[in-house]
Amino acid sequence: MVAQRVDHKWGMVVDLDRCTGCQACVVACQAENNIPINTKDYFQQRRAYEWIRIERYWEGQFPNVKAKFIPILCQHCENAPCEPVCPVFATYHNDEGMNVQIYNRCVGTRYCSVNCPYTVRFFNYWEPVWPERLRNQLNPDVTVRSRGIMEKCSFCVQRLRRGEVNVERRGLEPLTGERIPTADRKLNYRQMKEGNYLPSCVQACPTNALQFADQHDETGPVKEHFDEANEQIETREHGGHVDESHTRVYRLFEEIGTKPNVVYLKKVEPFPVEKA
Amino acid sequence: MQEGTPLQSRQINAELLRTILNSPKWFWIAISILGLIVLFAMAAAGIMINKGMGVTGLNRPVMWGFFITNFVFWIGISHAGVMLSAILRLSKAEWRRPATRAAEILTVFSLMTAMMMPLIHTGRPWRLVYWIYTLPFVPYDYARGIWPNVRSPLVWDPSAVYTYLTSSILFVIIALVPDFAVLRDRTTGMSNRIYGMLAMGWQGNPRQWKLQIIAGVLLSALILPVFVSVHSIVSWDFGMAVSVKSWHSTIFAPYFVVGAVHSGVSAVAFVLIILRYIYGWQNYIRHEHIDALGRLLIVVATGWFYFLVMEIIFGIYGREADEIAVRSLQFTVNPWAIWMLIFVVITYFLPVAIWLSKTGRRNLWIMSFACISVNIGMWLERFLIIVPGLARKQLLTFDWYTYRPSAIEWILVGGTFAMVSMLMLFIARVVPLIPLYDIKEAEILRTSIKIGRVSVPATFRED
Fold it and tell me: ipTM greater than 0.95, yes or no?
C-alpha cells in the first residue's frame, strides 16, 4: 500500500537582525552533509566548500565601522537559473520547492555554477579525503561525493525524508512515539523540531536567525514572511510599487526573477552608521 | 583579375602534386616537434583526468577559463572555411580559388580540436561521452528514460557544431573527388587503391562534372545557415546565462559570428602565406589573393569593431552597479586594463592600418604579422569576455575573485595549436591543398581586355 503523498513546500527565513555571524550553521552543515574538510589551500585557491556561508561586509568609514553578516545558502529558486543549463538534467526542481542535485548524473560542465547568481554551487576539484580518524563520523544518510561533480545545499533533504517517513508513513509522534490518526499525518513544525528533522543549520543557530518550515504550515514561523514576500512579487508583477521602508522581507537578487524559497528579513539599525 | 603568366595544365599538376606522398627532411622535423608538443598536451590532459580539475587555476566564481576560451577561439577559426568557399563561391569571387580547400580543411581540423576542449574541461569526461555526444556506438540512455536536457545551450552546442562538422567534411570530400582521380592516375600500389576508392569512380565525364558542381553549389547554400547558427549558438552559451551580468546580452550572436569570420579569415590568410613559402606555390597563391583577403578583412574587422563598441555601450548604458563592476575591472584594473588595451590595438587598429595600405597587403611578412596579431587579439577577446564576467558575476563582493591559469592549462592550449598545425601538415602530404581543377578552370577563364594600348588581365565568365 502506497501512503498518500503529502504536499509540502519548504522554505527558509533568514533574519539578519538576529544573525551574529557566529558560523555555527557553517560548522553544523559541514558535519551533517559530509562536506570535505576545507584546508588552508582550499581557501586560498577559493575552492572551499561552504553550503552555507556567512558573508561579512563592512559598513562605514573607520573608526565608525560596523560589520554586517549575511548567511548565504542555496536559495532553492522556483525559477532556478542553474536548472535549464545543465545538459544532463543533473539538477532539477522537485515538487516540494527544492532544487535537487543528482550526483550520479553530473558530468561536471560547471555551467550551473556559472549561471548561479548566488555562487552557492560547489565543484569537487579534488577527490575529497578524510583523515582516518574522521571516517567514522561521516553521515550514512548523505552521499559522499567524488571529484568532478557539483554539490550544493539540499535543505538537509535526508532529515526531511526521515521525518516524512516517521511521521507521515509510520504515524509516530517524535517525542512520545504515540500513533497519529491517519488524517492528521502531516509533518508540522512542532514535530520537525522535536524529531530533529529541521536542517542542521537551523537546528544549530543559537539566535534562531534561521527558521525553516513548510511555507503553508500555519503553526510554522515562516508562513507570514512567505505570504508577504509572495505578495510583493505579485504587486511587482502587476506593475505596483512595494514600499520597502515598511517591510523587512526581501529576497536576494529579486530583480533576476529567480523567486527563491529563502526569504531574508532586513537588519534593523537603531543606530545607523553615519555616512562619511 | 588574373595576375601572373598563364599556366599549363601539365605544370599545374606537377607543381601542386609535388607535396603529395613526398616527405622532405624538414617535414619529419616539423612533425616530430609538433608531435612532441601534442604528446605533452596529451600528458597534461591525462594528469588532469587522473588528478581532477584541481590542477587547473579555476576556482569558485571563475569556473570557466582557458579551455572555454580556447573552444570559442577554435570554433571561430573554423568559420573561415564557409566564409571563403561557400559565400565567395556563391558570390563568384574569382580570387577565392586557391584559398578554398585550405580553408575548408582548416575548418574541419579546428572544429575537431575545438570540440575536445569542452570534453576535457568537464569534471568527469568519461561520463560526458556517454551523456551528451551522440556517437553512433554510444547511444543515449533512453532505456531508463533519461535524455539530454534540450533547454541547455550545452546540448545545442554539439548539435550545431557536429552538423557543421559533417557538412564541412562533405564539402571537402565533394571538392576533392576530381583531385583524388588525378592522384589515382598518378600513383601505384596501395596508394593507388586508396585514392581509387576515394575517387569513387570519377572519370571526368560531363555528367559527373555537372553533378559535382551541383552538389558543391547546393552544399554551399545549405551550409550558410549552419555557418551563422554555429557561432550564434556558441555565443548563447554566454548570452543565456542570466546570472552573469556582462554575458547576458542579446548582441552576442552577431558579435561572435563577425568576430569568428575576422579571426578565421586572418588564419586562412596566414596558412596560405605559409603554404606559399614552404611549397613554393608562388604561381598559385599570388599577391592578388592575399591582397583580396586583406581587403575583405578590412570590412569584416570594421563590422566586428562596431559590435565590440556596441556591446560595451549597451553594457554601461543601463549604469547598473553589477555591470559597472565588470566594466571597471575590464577597463581600469591591471592587468585586465592592459590586456584590454593590447587586445583592441592588435585586433583592430594595427591590422586595419596595415590592410589599408597596398604595400601592407602585398608584403607577405607584414601581412602574416597582421594575421597573427588578429588571432592573438581574438583569443584575448574571448578571454576578456569570459573571465572578468565570472570574476565579477554579481554584487556579492565577498565572492569576487580572479583567475590565474596553471601550467597544465597553458600546455593544453599550446597543444591545440600544435595539433592543428600537425594535422594540416599531414593532410598536405596526402591531398593537394590547392584544388587542381579549380585552378585549371581559372586558367581556362583567363583572358585579357584591351583598353587603349594597355592589355589588362581579366577573367572571362559565362553567367
Answer: no
